[in-house]
Amino acid sequence: MDPYEEGKRKYLSPLDKEAEPLTPVEAFVEVPVVTIEEDTEADEPLFPLASLLEHLTELRKQIIKGLIVFILFFIIVFSTINIWFPYVTRGHSLIILGPLEVVKFYMTISTTLAFGLSMPFLVHFLWSFVKPGLKEEESRFLGLYAPVMLVLFLLGVAFGYFIVNPLSYSFLVTIGATNFDVMVSANEYMHFLVMTTVPLGLLFELPIVALFLSSIGVLTADSMKKIRGWSYIGMGVGSAVITPPDFISQLLVLIPMIILYEIGIYLVKRIERKQIESTA
Predict the structure, then answer these.
(1) 193 and 89: one domain?
(2) More confident residue, 134 or 8
(3) Average pLDDT, the chain
(4) How many structural domains does the chain have?
(5) pLDDT at residue number 40
(6) pTM surpassing 0.90?
(7) Structural domain of residue 272, as residue ranges?
(8) How far apart are CA 256 and CA 262, in angstroms?
(9) Are 210 and 267 in contact (CB under 8 A)?
């Protein structure tokens, strides 16, 4: 018995079947041939590797230079701590709660002063890195106002050190002395000193920020006048956040902020007037 019935089957497989002749219609129909073209061009990277490595190398060089300057100032400040320390404490009686707190206090205050002294150099190194990637108007703006920004920051720190800090400290200590024996630790005093000086240095940059936003077309003098009320509210909230929780400190910070805001409006309006005159 033949299970496959080879003698009876006409075709053993489809391959054995002879091609049937095409009909007249099929003979004139051309079957499209699909071809796959190989992409011979290599995919270019979105960010060229050589340019990226060059930028990273330049950033690394500027960071190393900044660290060297910071370490040098830290060594100088830490080695002369007995000379300038009375100017920081202002003769206040401070207490230390443990032997390790002495080292922590000296390191904190030396780091803060070293960072402040090295800031002009750090800004210069940062400027050297970002300058090639800036637009012409941005580069001209920052190159012109960078010294002014440094001066305003120092003025803000000086305002906090000579006015806000002593008045706030005396006010808070006087209130506490009414019902308590006030003893101020060195770390708490250092935290209070930094909180009443450094944020003011940043707030004094407000006119420069307004000028920059105006130079790129984001801010105008009219828009600043329209949101003046909301800006005052925001500045009041900001002064309450960055200053000690007393009315005197908040008022001492809020008044300069309002004055700087009005100065910013005046400067932006003056620049807009000059631009109109130059285009006329």
Answers:
(1) no
(2) 134
(3) 79
(4) 2
(5) 46
(6) no
(7) 135-280
(8) 10
(9) yes
